[in-house]
């Protein structure tokens, strides 16, 4: 599977499985097992998803050596702060049943995330994390974060899909040596994305699905992806995107779909910030 090199020299698979909203733990465990057996090596979870234990069970039951897997999890807002982060990290390790995390992310730019980053830097130096990064950080927060921390984030995981393309933000990250990873690559099916005329017509040219066109559009620019599916045929389809290349005309055409705004919510709106700040999970 194709990989990208992060700014600390660690290689990360370009395509992985995201397990957000796979709430049934048996289904989550089986999905991860199926994905690994199908060739997936990156699994992306988070404490907030409440399925780290299921992911850990799948890792333990898999025949694939731990060192061949790339496991990502994330720190939620309620766990920010130096000591809280240390505790939350150990809890994630225990649930995932592993000795180290490949990529540990700040899930939101909220709470005492600077204190959390100090803890993450220490855990990284101790060898308990192979790479540390951020998620849902907007350009101003990225620039400020770079200026005031010792270790540069390896990645920023943000919403990117044909309706919310964020080219300027991606370029800013690239200029600063930070990789980009897309969540909600399919916009969770919103705006009729899977029946979009343009994406369908492009897919027809290559005998590929709309989902494959979207993932190719992203990975062709070295944007990592973590699409979710609980169906084996879709898992295989989502990984089968390296045998074709979109033309410059295709890329320009897809650019016209950009609305310049999230299909979900704006993290910078006071109402959204208040909601995320109050959102809690039951550890």
How far is it from the N-terminal to the C-terminal residue, by CA? 34 Å
Mean pLDDT: 97
Question: What's the CATH architecture?
Answer: Alpha-Beta Barrel
Oligomeric state of shown chains = single chain
What's the tally of helices? 11
Number of strands: 10
Which residues sit in consecutive blocks of at least 5 with pLDDT less than 50? none
Report the principal-axis shape: globular
CATH-defined topology: TIM Barrel
The strand line-up of the biggest sheet is 3-4-5-6-7-8-9-10
Question: Could you state the order of secondary-structure elements as H and E?
Answer: EEEHEHEHEHEHEHEHHEHHH
CATH superfamily: NADP-dependent oxidoreductase domain
Please tell me how large the radius of gyration is. Answer: 18 Å
Number of domains: 1
- Give the helix proportion (percent range): 40-55%
Main sheet attributes: strand count, strand direction, barrel closure: 8 strands, parallel
Q: CATH first level: which class?
A: Alpha Beta
What would you call the structural class? alpha/beta
What is the percentage of strand-forming residues? 5-15%
Short key terms for the protein model shown above:
single chain; 8-stranded parallel sheet; alpha/beta; 40% helix; TIM Barrel; 283 residues; two-stranded antiparallel ribbon
Task: Describe the 3D structure.
The model has no long low-confidence stretch (mean pLDDT 97). An eight-stranded parallel sheet has the order 3-4-5-6-7-8-9-10. The protein is α/β, with parallel strands linked by helices and 283 residues long. It has one domain (3-278): NADP-dependent oxidoreductase domain (TIM Barrel), CATH 3.20.20. Helices cover 40% and strands 15% of the residues. The radius of gyration is 18 Å and the shape is globular. α7 packs across α8.
């Amino acid at each position: 599977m194709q990989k990208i090199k992060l700014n600390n020299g660690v290689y990360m698979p370009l395509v992985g499985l995201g397990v957000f909203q796979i709430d049934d733990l048996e289904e989550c465990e089986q999905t991860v097992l199926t994905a690994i057996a199908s060739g997936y090596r990156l699994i992306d979870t988070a404490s907030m998803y409440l399925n780290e234990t299921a992911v850990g069970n799948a890792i333990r039951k898999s025949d694939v050596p731990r060192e061949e897997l790339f496991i990502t999890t994330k720190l939620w807002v309620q766990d920010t702060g130096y000591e809280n982060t240390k505790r939350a990290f150990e809890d994630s390790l225990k649930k995932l049943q592993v000795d180290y995390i490949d990529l540990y992310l700040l899930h939101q730019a909220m709470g005492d995330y600077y204190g959390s980053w100090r803890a993450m830097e220490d855990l990284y130096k101790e060898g308990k994390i192979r790479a540390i990064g951020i998620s849902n950080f907007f350009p101003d927060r990225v620039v400020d974060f770079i200026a005031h921390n010792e270790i540069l984030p390896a990645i920023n995981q943000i919403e990117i899909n044909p309706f919310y393309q964020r080219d300027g933000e991606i370029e800013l990250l690239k200029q600063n040596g930070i990789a980009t990873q897309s969540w909600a690559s399919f916009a969770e099916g919103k705006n009729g994305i899977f029946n979009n005329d343009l994406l369908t017509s492009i897919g027809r040219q290559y005998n590929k699905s709309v989902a494959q066109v979207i993932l190719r559009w992203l990975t062709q620019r070295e944007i990592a992806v973590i699409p979710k599916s609980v169906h084996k045929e879709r898992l295989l389809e989502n990984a089968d995107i390296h045998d074709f290349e979109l033309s410059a005309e295709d890329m320009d055409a897809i650019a016209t779909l950009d609305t310049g705004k999230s299909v979900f919510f704006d993290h910078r709106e006071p109402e959204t910030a208040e909601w995320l700040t109050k959102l809690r999970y039951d550890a």
